[in-house]
UniProtKB/TrEMBL annotation, chains A, B:
Protein's UniProt name: Cytosine deaminase
GO MF entries: diaminohydroxyphosphoribosylaminopyrimidine deaminase activity; metal ion binding
Taxonomic lineage: Bacteria, Pseudomonadati, Acidobacteriota, Terriglobia, Terriglobales
Cofactor(s) needed by this chain: Zn(2+)
Keywords: Cytoplasm, Hydrolase, Metal-binding, Zinc
Organism: Acidisarcina polymorpha
Quaternary structure, from the entry: Homodimer.
């Protein structure tokens, strides 16, 4: 499942964007929707990887048994998405470049798995090194 | 400023959608972007009033001095948006139909103002009464 999110991140990078991808799966591992950060490509600050995947999955009756897989720990915005819609499980590629709201999600009962994947770490670390201003804009750092 | 958000909510209602609207202003009261919930209209569960207004405002260098005005207290998803992007002030039309994450935002230093506007309360209460399933879907209640 992480490979789907990484594929999305790589699409984003190829488009000139921030390489963060995500995918939402149902309990049987069926893909509901995937997406990636589109801040640069669409000039859309609301399109983080997780929110883009959530959007592309369309309307769902319940998220309790769904699994959000993302290349990077979700920020407060995306952690809030997970909490509000009661997404049961979050699998993250890494937390080294950004820790996000994972402890908060654990504290409210979300099942969190950190894969600590070297490819995910390297992909984003290189982007941040080369594009610090865009990265800071994406996480609301002035 | 609340009138802009209420106008957006009424557009949403006229489109057959959930009547929640929002608007983002700069420190001088200049409108940066406004929007409304588009779950029903666009089949887009990611488009809450606040996220739609944030999206329509486009990329901004800093949100510290911006003001998010919304007809309803922001849910966890939209509260997370406010926290991540350090939006300094949130003005809400009402908290009676939904309390959202306002206490959490206050605890991290966001300036929160609750207008407790009867028009906002009535507009959403009537929608919830007539469309309980759509409302519950919008706040992730199974």
């Amino acid at each position: 499942m992480l490979a789907v999110a990484v594929h999305e991140a790589r699409i984003g990078l190829a488009e000139g964007g921030i390489p963060i991808g995500a995918a939402l799966f149902d309990a049987d591992g069926r893909l509901l929707g995937s997406g990636h950060n589109r801040r640069v490509q669409h000039g859309d600050p609301s399109a983080h990887g997780e929110t883009d995947a959530f959007r592309n999955a369309g309307r769902q009756r319940s998220y309790r048994d769904t699994i959000m897989v993302t290349t990077l720990a979700p920020c407060w915005y995306c952690s809030g998405l997970v909490r509000q819609f009661n997404i049961g499980t979050v699998i993250v590629g890494e937390t080294r470049n950004f820790a996000g709201g994972l402890d908060w999600l654990r504290s409210v009962g979300v099942n969190v798995v950190d894969i600590d994947d070297p490819e995910c770490v390297k992909l984003l670390a290189e982007y941040i090194r080369d594009n610090p201003a865009v990265w800071n804009e994406d996480i609301g750092e002035g």
